[in-house]
Every structure is written in C-alpha cells, then in structure tokens.
Amino acid sequence: MARHTGRFLRINLSTGEMRTEPVAEQVVMALIGGRGFGINYLYQELAPNIDPLGEHNKLLLLTGVLAGTSAQSVSRWMACTKSPLTGGFARAVGGADFGAWLKFVGYDFIIIEGKAERPVYIHLTSDSCHIHDAGELWGENTSETQEWLYQRYGRSTRVACIGPAGEKLVKYAAIVTGRRTASRCGVGTVMGSKKLKAIAITAQRNLQLHDPVAFKQLVREQIDSYRASKGYQHHRDMGTTETQDITNSLGIFPVKNFRYGRQTDYEKLVGQEYRKLRTGDFGCYSCSARCGKIHLVPAGPYAGAYSEGPEYETIWVFTGPVDNTNIEATVAADQLCDDLGLDTISTGNCIGFAYELYEKGILTKQDTDGLELTYGNHSAMIALITKIALREGLGDILAEGSMRAAATIGNGAEAYAIHVKGMEIPGYEPRGAKSMGFNYATSNIGASHCYGYAGQEVFGRTVPREVDRFAEEENTDIVVYNQDFRAMSEVGIVCAFATGWGWFPHLFGRMLVAATGIDQLADTDYLWRVGERIINLERAFNVREGFSRKQDTLPQRMLSEPLLTRGAPGEGQMITAMDKFLDRYYRARGWTKEGIPSPQKLNELGLGYVLRDITQTRNK
Ligand code: SF4
What we know:
The chain is α+β, with helices and mostly antiparallel strands. Helices cover 39% and strands 13% of the residues.
C-alpha cells in the first residue's frame, strides 16, 4: 500500500452499501489531504440548505498525509460536516491514535452517509467492514462504550464514539476517542443524528513510504529541532495547564461571561496548582511532547474525579465564565464532558450565559429546577452539565447553544449570548487580543481559536512579525497569515501546538515529498497556496448556505462595552473598527465587500467551478 493511500471508504447507513473509491489525482494536487479533502468532498456532495441533522448530511472522518508515520505530532484526525450549530462548514480536530489507525486500515478518510433506522456501530479491518446493531451500547457513556468494544475486538482496536449528548442531539456534542475529543461545531450531533454510536478500527501498523530512508532522516531533524526548542520543553512539562497564568496576566482571561479579563484570586488556578493533582501524562500517536496531563482529585466533594486534562480551554471555561476557583471541580467537569460527549467550550459558555441571566433576573430558581446559578457555585455548574447532556429542564434549552437558547428565553437574553455564527467563543478575550477576535469573526466555522490562532498576541511570537495586540485593522495581514497557516498544516494533519516549535513548514514540505513522491510539495509557496485555497473553498461553501458579511462579526458586548481587566493591561479596550477591519480583510483576501470570493480570486486558485453556485446564490 502506498503511503498516500489515495482512497477512501464510503458507507451508507440508510442502505448498508459500502465501497472503496479513489481520490482523483487533481484533488490530491489541489488540496493534498486532511482538511483539504474534507471541504472538497462536502462542497461537491452536499446540496445547499440541507438539514444538518437530516439523512442528506454527510460526516467525514479524515486523517492527514503523514498520519501513522514516525514523524512527530502529525497523526491528528478530523471530522468535517455541515454544522448543526452554525449551519455552515464544520471542522473539529481530534487526537490520540484514531488518525493513525484509520491510515493503517488503508484509508485517507471515511464518508458516512444516510441514517440508520436503529443504533449501529461500524467495525472496520483491513479486509472487512461491518455494520452492527448498537442497541446494547445506546445510552452508555463514552468510556463504557470504548471498553465494550475493546472487550469484543481486542486491544489493537481504536474507537471513535459519541456519548449520551450526541444521542440526544445536543447541538455541540463531541466525538470521543480514548479521552480525546473532536469537539467543536456539533460533529458528534451529526453522528448521533445518523444513529451511529461508534466506529471501531482493528488494524496492525502497516505503512509504505515513498522514500523511507529520506523520511527517517527528516524525522531525526524534526526531533533535533524539538529538543532545541524551549517551547517544546515547556509544553512537555506543563501541557496547556499554565496558559491561564499568561492570559490572566495579559487581561484576556474572560470572566463572568466576558465582562472581565482577569479572575480575582486567579493564583488559585495557576498551573502549579494543577501540578499538585497530576498523576501522569499522555501523548497522541508518535508525539514525544505527551502534553495531555492526567489529573486525579484525591479528596473532597470531587474525590475520585479523573481526567486526561483539563487543558487550557476547559480550565478556563469551568472557572472564568462562572467565576469559580475550585480546580477539583474543573477536573470533574472535564471528566463528565468526556464521558457524556460534550464540547467543553460550548458547554461552559452556555452555563456562563445562564449564570448571567440568573444574576440579571431573566432566569429564576423556577427556571433552573431549584439550582442557584450564583457566581462561584461550582456544584450547580456540575449539575447543569448533566442536565444539558440529557436535555433535562433548563439543560434542554441550553443544549441548543447560546444563540438559540437566547431566542427561546427572550426578555433581552440575546444581549448576553456570546457566540460567532452560533458557536460559542473560546478563552481569549477579543478586546485584549484583537487578531484572535477578528479571527473568530471571520472564521468559516464560527468562533474558533484554532482556525487562526494568534500566538503572536498570547505568547509574543514574532513570526511573521511582532504584533500590537490592541491594534485593529492594522493587523489584517496577521489574521490572514494565521488562518492560511493553520489550513495548510491541517492537510498533514499537524498538531496546532507543534507548529510553534521551529520545524514547520520547512521540514513539512520535504516530509510530504518523502511520504508521497509528489515533488511539488517541497515548495512552501505551493503549500501556502493550498492553505489559501482551502479557506476560499470553505468560504464558498458558506456563501452557498447564505452567509455573507453580516455573519462576520463579534458579539455586541465586544463592540460596545469596555473591557474591565482588574489591573491587567487593556482596561477599557473595545473593538472599535469592525467595519474597517472587514474592508481591509476582504481586500487582502481578494473578496468582495460582502465577503464573497471574487471571480478573479477563484480563478487564480483554480476554483472557478464554484462561481456558478455563488452567482446563483447571490441572484436568489
Ligand atoms: S502536542 Fe499534545 S495534542 Fe499535540 S500531538 Fe502531541 S500530545 Fe497530541
């Protein structure tokens, strides 16, 4: 089997049909793999305006070109679909071993179509694929589901599954593998809508590289660059459990539903406090960083809580939004979300939104089944997580996401729903890290830090240049750079953390060549152009769904309320130049004033074929 397998598996759950298909050569050359294949097949195969939870939506699980190799930090995997949360393109990245196993079993990706009549799971080996009844597993949490499948198929099996939240169609359900998740955009919701509980892959390590000798040498170079990198050493030591130390000191740690940029008593949450609960670490396939830090609560009300996390976003979202400083509660919340199959960012944001509504009197104890949603009350937060996953009481409303929940609750609740395009915002305050904020606003998947992470603003990175984090339209180039960079690296699929450690992209292209034999991939300009092509195709997908400039914005709070930082830098900051930024961003991208890729740009990128769809949509 060639390293770049060039084939995928299509499984229709309505009919039970399945077949292997080749990836066309021109698709490989234009989009390389991973996220590029994801948007290509969604664009080609989904009709506009279908119901994301209907049988015509498709769920793609994809590896990247380098998955399963000895290269470091490149075996991530990804789910792409039409999002039930935003109605646009969805992409969620997962870790652990599942991406490598998908490659070992012989596929670049799987397309899941249709809808089963009853709960099912798929078992895949290198020479078979079967759809089995999952009645026994429906209702089980993700740990129990995985254990059941390991018992049945052995320990050389890897599983991606949903929990009760996906079954109940919570709009931000995750897909879970091991204790890692592909969380965002409701990818687990789409899996639940298809009544697909799990995909289990039994495989042996099995790869053929185009040039294994050259590849081995490049991996040595990569490992040397890791060892020389302080960023790598620090990440290996602390993972992301110390990022809140930085974001609090910068005044960009959102507190009380994005009113403050620093938490009072934040020294109770710092990385060294998490270290006291640490019992081990965990790494994804072939990654020596092992940045997943394992925590166990030894005593107290959360005694026994265990998680391979929480990572920064989860630490933040179960502290800042509800003004909680009990870190044991964050471990318990992380474990619950993993078991129930919930995206922690959206879950915690929806809870923070409810706490503010309670403070304002828009929600009362009658609406919360007696829960006191007062700031700092972490036991109510924990109770709400389960209510959301099981759609009980107020949890049923919050399960729709903050945008839809606000419309249901009414009484001015919309003003407190903090989202972009319907997806909740991660733990970097847009008013104090403005390139990050503008990335949220223009991202094609809704508010995602990973869509174009502004490491320049958080970690002071100086590539491609130094950045003033309070500048607005002046940083258009940085937003474009970060978004294209991430899209390019997700053909790999390279971990977002690893791209900061000095080996990327100069080694990346050479590794792609050694793996595939495609010489053009050594050219970094070629790779950048692929990144830009992916962003444009994702934008074209959204335009076809009716998106335009109107959706490229931030919550009103960021545009009209000054940030309060409690002594950290950035007091009084707001987003003041949203329109000017958009004008410049669209110009830099070669898009119209409405945020639509121009015919010139599409033709330049070899995407002229989407022009007819865009013209038809605009003429409606
Ligand atoms: S850096 Fe961490 S998240 Fe990234 S691949 Fe390595 S272990 Fe996984």
